Amino acid sequence: MAKKSTIEKLKTRISVLEKDRQRKVDEQIELILKTDPEILQINSQIDDLKKMVKTSEELERKKEELEKQMLDLLD
Fold this sequence. Notes:
Residues 7-72 form a coiled coil. By secondary structure, this protein is an all-alpha fold. It has 2 helices and no strands. The protein has one domain (1-73). It is 96% helix and 0% strand. It is elongated.
């Protein structure tokens, strides 16, 4: 019985240590993502591309609206 209790305590301790290790790894990754110049540049480029896609989608919607208006005028 004592062995079982000790094993359970060790499993719990291992779980706590693993969670702490993962938290520290996540913190380091977050720090790198916030400070690495290359990653910052890539993130900036991604943001620019997202803006371009959004603008392109908006322009496409406006184009479709104008086409519809022109067809309505022709009718």
